[in-house]
Amino acid sequence: PFLRLLEAQLQDQRREHEEEVEALKNQVDAMKEEMEKQQQAFLQTLQLSPEAQVEFGLQQEITRLTNENLDLKELLEKLEKNEKKLKKQLKIYMKKVQDFEASQAMVPAERRRHERTMQVAVQRKEKDFQGMLEYYKEDEPLLIRNLIT
């Protein structure tokens, strides 16, 4: 059983290594192709007149900048989409906060005094026990608000 486990682990590692080597070979091949294209372009450029070399270089730079610009445009679109999503979430959370504050405003003044005394008692209990807290279910929003503030 132990030897089979080790053998299985070794086979997994070998497979991962072979996949990694294959990926690296593909990457090297792609780089070789790109280098050959660049060498051909360079040799063609050397055969051109100086004015044509400058024009070719400018054309290459324009192509590179255009591609970079398209990439940046795509990134900007993604960021704008994310911004809209975050703004929508913020509106939802702001609405929840407003609803919560409105529900707290409806609590009678007498209940608020009771909650303040409960808050003092809770603070004393925390100092004494520094752990579990007992509270009424209806006092939960107040406790959450006090924890946040």
TrEMBL record:
Domain of life: Eukaryota
Stretches assigned to coiled coil: 3-103
Keyword Coiled coil: yes
Assigned keywords, A-Z: Coiled coil
Official protein name in the record: MYO5B protein
